[in-house]
Amino acid sequence: MIGSPLVYMQQNQVQKAYQNFITSQTDLSPSVAFGFDEGDVFHVYTFKPQIPVSGYNCESAVKFLDQMPKGEDGFTVANQVIQTIGKNEIARPGSNTVLVLFAMEAETNELCHRVFIRNSQGQLKEGILKFIPENSEIYSRNQGLLETSILERKKIGIVGLGSGGSTLAVELAKAGVGNFVLMDFDRLELANISRHVCGIGDLGRYKTKAVRDLLYGKNPYVNVETAEIDINENPGKTNLLLKQCDLIIGATDNNRSRFNLNKIALENKITSIFGRALTRACGGDILRVRPYQGPCLGCVFTKEFLESRQEEISQFKQAREETPAYVSDQEVSATIQVGLSSDILPISNMIVKLALVELCRDLESGIASLEEDLVADFYIWANRREQTYANWPKMLYDSRTPSILRWYGAKWKRNLSCPVCGEEHQQIDDEENIFAA
Amino acid sequence: MTWSQVQQKRLQTEKRILKKYFPTFKWLNPTDPDNTQVEGNIRSNAKNIYRLRIYIPSDYPNSRPEMVIISPNPLKGYLGKDLKEYGASRKMHILSPKDEYVQICHYKDWLPNLTVYLVVLKGRIWLEALEGHTRTGKSLDKFLSHMKKGA
Ligand SMILES: [Zn+2]
């Protein structure tokens, strides 16, 4: 036997509804309720919520009274109100009606509340009303380990919302990061779903907007800007959106976009993190770029490097763009070799840790010791002993030899003659500069 | 749109290098990133003159500059066949025509450490291969075998 039904409302919506009642004196406020499972949980909204809602639609109202009826009187009042609101509605079989009663208690000056649910058989039950609090309270349990007040003010730009970018976005919202810029011009397709954090219910939507809704679901008070643009074709707008960020994460699947992000990050002196999966997600690597303090993408992503660590080709569009036009679509399709979602997750999880270290750098936080461990700018990961890892020893019991499923930080120096961040570019000679407008 | 400061520095360096090895090449519309081109003549070992055009993309050097042969046009190969008739061809090392000129396939895996000078050099090598093809009828890849796959 289930106990009393649970009914949830957002605290700020209750406050807004009460203000409306005070100013308009309309005591009955229409609302929408969504029921779950066997009618033991309901979520009530008086305004269109920012978060995506699920559950089945129920009739609902919020009523403000002068005085809260005590005990059994509550049922009498509730029945009367439900009859008035139900009059104009066609009763739907199997549907519930959720009524929330509020009254301002004169003595205590507190808004007290009761909630009643009438089921499809007409039986009235009292439920327990719970409030979803403001931001700071949702994330208060993180306090101590991570300075939530710091993270709340930070802004992260995430470019590329495939399986890697989408999972790390959600993790960063869960950690308490307060502001996001999400950029991707792809829509969710059936082929993406098995590796993506979004599901069938989001098919056809822009990945940016579907992921934004997931972030709202974790924290309704997070600020999310989305841009459905190809950063390679829109450098100006991309720069404008990203230059306000404290950190940029490049989770795209091609080098052109990575180099364009690298350029923006260097020009604005913003730390950036690039993550990739290798062929069939046999492993991956992560590069952290601290502008002019360590290597940039151009220092590391050389021809030799890219040939020794070949990237995963997971989408037809990606493969088509990287292949000359004389290669047939059929041949292109054959190059698509997709790894498992669980092979991508360790890489995005590591990016999250590196990102949190960057955002909390030099501040007192519970992860300060991690700063001392993660001093490398380049990290590699192996999921399986194949491709570039084919000759690695088996994991077995030895922790002293390189093995799969462990992170390795590599020392990588900045190349002072790097064509992108190097210092050897000669000064602009104004007289000879034909490139200035 | 204009070239950023960093791009201007880079392009100046490129201009200097190109001038050293291919002094007759000229920069066209250099202040307009959507329309900057490099053009110049190449004289082959057989003393034929070809004119190349390189399109500098607005996100240069982060993406690959395209290269076409603008003269002679039409560009003819073995038995006078117009090279455009091959469309995009792996054997001939050409991509789909651009602006109705034959487009040379070069540096498939473009990286910012490559330069316009190196692109022109690829063009010069391709033109020598073209002459080999025109003499013998063998496809261009037979003459470009020393160029790595994908290059
Ligand atoms: Zn560099």
Topology:
The complex is a heterodimer of chains A (437) and B (151).
Chain A: E1 6-10, H1 11-24, E2 28-36, E3 41-45, E4 56-65, H2 73-86, E5 97-105, E6 110-118, E7 124-132, H3 135-138, H4 148-153, E8 155-159, H5 163-175, E9 179-183, H6 190-193, H7 207-218, E10 223-227, H8 235-242, E11 247-250, H9 255-267, E12 272-277, E13 283-289, H10 297-300, H11 303-308, H12 316-322, H13 329-334, H14 341-359, H15 368-373, E14 378-382, E15 408-410
Parallel strand pairs in A: 1-3, 1-7, 4-5, 8-9, 8-11, 9-10, 11-12
Antiparallel strand pairs in A: 2-3, 2-4, 5-6, 6-7, 12-13, 13-14, 14-15
Helix pairs in contact in A: 5-7, 5-14
Chain B: H1 5-21, E1 26-28, E2 37-43, E3 49-55, E4 66-71, E5 94-98, E6 101-104, H2 116-136, H3 140-143
Antiparallel strand pairs in B: 1-2, 2-3, 3-4, 4-6, 5-6
Bound molecules: zinc ion (ZN).
Zinc ion is lined by residues 295-296, 298-299, 415, 418, 420-421 of chain A.
Descriptive labels:
heterodimer; A: 437 residues; alpha/beta; eight-stranded mixed sheet; seven-stranded mixed barrel; 15 strands; 31% helix; 22% strand; elongated; B: 151 residues; alpha+beta; six-stranded antiparallel sheet; 3 helices; 6 strands; 28% helix; binds zinc ion
What does this protein structure show overall?
The complex is a heterodimer of chains A (437) and B (151). In chain A, helix 5 (163-175) crosses helix 14 (341-359). The longest helix of chain A is centred in the C-terminal third of the chain and has 19 residues, at 341-359. Chain A is built from 15 helices and 15 strands. Helix content of chain A is 31%, strand content 22%. Chain A is α/β, with parallel strands linked by helices. Chain A is elongated and about 85 Å long. In chain A, strand 6 and strand 7 form a beta hairpin. Chain B is built from three helices and six strands; from the N terminus they run H-E-E-E-E-E-E-H-H. Chain B has helices at residues 5-21, 116-136, 140-143, and strands spanning 26-28, 37-43, 49-55, 66-71, 94-98, 101-104. The longest helix of chain B is centred in the C-terminal third of the chain and has 21 residues, at 116-136. Chain B is elongated. Chain B starts with a helix and ends in an 8-residue tail after the last helix. The A-B interface holds A 232, 235-236, 255-256, 259-260, 263, 266-267, 298, 301-303, 306, 322-327, 418-420, 425-429, 432-437 and B 1-13, 15, 27, 30-32, 36, 58-59, 61-63, 87-90, 94-96, 105, 108-113. Bound molecules: zinc ion. Zinc ion binds next to helix 10 of chain A.
